[in-house]
Amino acid sequence: MGQSSALHVQKSLGGKSWRFFDADDAEVTRIVQTRQLPEFIARLLCQRGIPSDSIDEFFNPTLRDHFPDPFSLKGMAELADDIAARIMAAKEGGSTIGILADFDVDGATSAAILTRFLRHFGLNPPVYIPDRLEEGYGPSKASFESLKEQGAECVIIADCGITAHEPITDGRALGLDIVVLDHHEPEDTLPDANHIINPKRKDDSSGLDMLAACGVSFLVCVAINNRLREKGFYKERSIEEAPMKSFLDLLGLGTVCDMVPLQGPNRLFVKAGFDQMAHHTNEGIKALCLVGKVEKAPTPTDAGWSIGPRINAGSRVHRSDLGAKLLSTTDADEAMSIALALEECNQERKEIQSKMMKTACDKVEITNLYMKPIIVVEDESFHPGLSGLVAGRLKERYGKPAICVTYAENSDGSIEGRGSGRSVKGISMADMFISARDEGLLVKGGGHAMAGGFTIEPDKIDAFREYLYSYIDNLSEDNEIIEELEIDSLATVRGATPNFIKLLTDNMGPFGVGNAEPIFALSGVRAYSVDVLKEKHIRLMLSDSDGGSRMKAMFFSGVDTELGQALLTQSKVMPFHLVGQFQINSWQGRESVEFHVKDGTYAIEQKEKIEIKEAV
């Protein structure tokens, strides 16, 4: 589909500015001619900076040719030698190596990869997943004590631990050897662990900083496997090597759900992982697909919308260990039992989240928090396990960084605030929280650029809020942060055929962070019908401005937004510019295209001429 810079929106009804990606037209033409690719695919490749000589790898990365070298990670050789020696010395059924992992999908898949790997050697590692609501994020002295009581002499921490200085010191004092496998941002000083594998270490030159923790864990297992092979372990004992390929589905699932960049090795991990997932060899994933009514081979979209939320749901209602147990089991009956329990957790989560979101939005509207540079909401009724989800929804709704603070008892019985934040481009949550912590406003805080978490003393909430306002004001000259929505191309209703969507997905997928699902703008479309589904979603039937074929569109959770109200009250009498993504719906053997609305504005407010060049 042709690119146009004619559609300029400075501030949409969703509070966003629109920017179209640029592409070198000459390079687009060259790729079309030399690679025999459709023009819109060539344009997307250019827009995403894929060099011509890397197109084959982008389209079809292979385990044989593009798998990263595990030993390029700092400290990997020493760790692989250590763990290989422990495996060789361990007795059948022993549990000298314990696992501690985070409670999200990345943590659960990391724990499952490590567990399945160690079980191959007859080991039965104890696994500890902190209770999200009671213990919070990361290791603690109590968690190390529990693993030691279960026979662990060495504890592998996955998807957390890189800033856990005091707990790791406590664990070492208990006589434990500790390994940290993480991908979160480290501080200048690393904790006193025996081994630390983190591609974000300042002294790591591997270039693998895009990995999720499950990717780090998988590479660790590959490296240990390599060392065992070199030492003649498999040959001497006449056993097969660890079935690393069978763990690829876990690797793909964790990579997608942790929203790390789908670039380099991660693109390979997801492609290979979902190819493996299609065989349904993991009983836990198979059970989740059955419960979630994923009837075909799972896709990254299924992982994000169906499989991942169910794994996460357990930790939000005091069942943090269910995800790791589910993904580690080889028993079909046990898997289904856990999957059904997670389904109940997910339904409970949805009900709590709906009430919490209404309270949060009421606070934002009544106290005019939407006029501030960052939205910070807190309430004693808020559920500690849902702060991140609510912060994300607030960010999407108001187009600004958002923080949700909940309250819970800590280990000494006093009340503490636990917050989660979701950010927009140009404002790093991790940097902001670390800065506030250094100012003495937070007990602890950190994370990624786009998401982070913290612990705070309740009496410092107001000072923290004011500090954030000042922090962001200093980043912005006009004191207003407007989220920028990057659009790949203009599109038309008549051009969006199932064949077009398949070409798009087959060539450019899998989609995720760093290779986002393309976003298209429909210019001046008209609605022939509009109604509300389940009291919160909006369904429309659209056509191009000059009529012709019609297409179904959905604006999920849009009823209470400014754009949603405009569509419900005015879309039949005036045209709209809408931005979103295309999906294929299959129903009774028939396929149709559906448009999922992300943003929009009135078409009549745009005075510039809109030029649309169709690709199909």
In short:
The protein has helices at 25-35, 39-47, 55-59, 63-66, 76-89, 105-119, 141-149, 165-173, 213-230, 233-237, 248-257, 265-277, 283-291, 300-316, 322-328, 332-366, 387-398, 429-438, 461-475, 498-508, 562-570, and strands spanning 17-20, 97-101, 127-128, 154-158, 177-181, 195-197, 375-378, 402-409, 415-422, 444-447, 451-456, 484-487, 489-491, 520-533, 537-544, 547-555, 576-587, 590-602.
Descriptive key words:
five-stranded mixed beta sheet; disordered C terminus; disordered N terminus; OB fold (Dihydrolipoamide Acetyltransferase, E2P); alpha/beta; 18 strands; five-stranded parallel beta sheet; 616 residues; 40% helix; inorganic pyrophosphatase (n-terminal core)
What does this structure look like?
The protein has 21 helices and 18 strands. It is an alpha/beta fold and 616 residues long. A five-stranded parallel β-sheet has the order 3-2-4-5-6, sandwiched between helices. Residues 1-5 and 606-616 have low confidence and may be disordered. The protein folds into four domains: 1-21 and 488-616, OB fold (Dihydrolipoamide Acetyltransferase, E2P) (Beta Barrel), CATH 2.40.50.140; 26-59, no CATH class; 68-344, inorganic pyrophosphatase (n-terminal core); 367-475, Roll (Diaminopimelate Epimerase, Chain A, domain 1). It starts with 16 loop residues before the first strand and ends in a 14-residue tail after the last strand.
Number of strands: 18
- End-to-end CA span: 7 Å
Number of distinct helices? 21
Q: Give a short account of the largest sheet.
A: 5 strands, parallel
Task: Write the topology of this structure.
Elements: E1 17-20, H1 25-35, H2 39-47, H3 55-59, H4 63-66, H5 76-89, E2 97-101, H6 105-119, E3 127-128, H7 141-149, E4 154-158, H8 165-173, E5 177-181, E6 195-197, H9 213-230, H10 233-237, H11 248-257, H12 265-277, H13 283-291, H14 300-316, H15 322-328, H16 332-366, E7 375-378, H17 387-398, E8 402-409, E9 415-422, H18 429-438, E10 444-447, E11 451-456, H19 461-475, E12 484-487, E13 489-491, H20 498-508, E14 520-533, E15 537-544, E16 547-555, H21 562-570, E17 576-587, E18 590-602
Parallel strand pairs: 1-12, 2-3, 2-4, 4-5, 5-6, 7-8, 13-14, 16-18
Antiparallel strand pairs: 8-9, 9-11, 10-11, 14-15, 14-17, 15-16, 17-18
Helix pairs in contact: 1-2, 2-20, 5-9, 6-9, 6-11, 6-15, 9-11, 11-12, 11-14, 13-16, 14-16, 15-16, 16-17
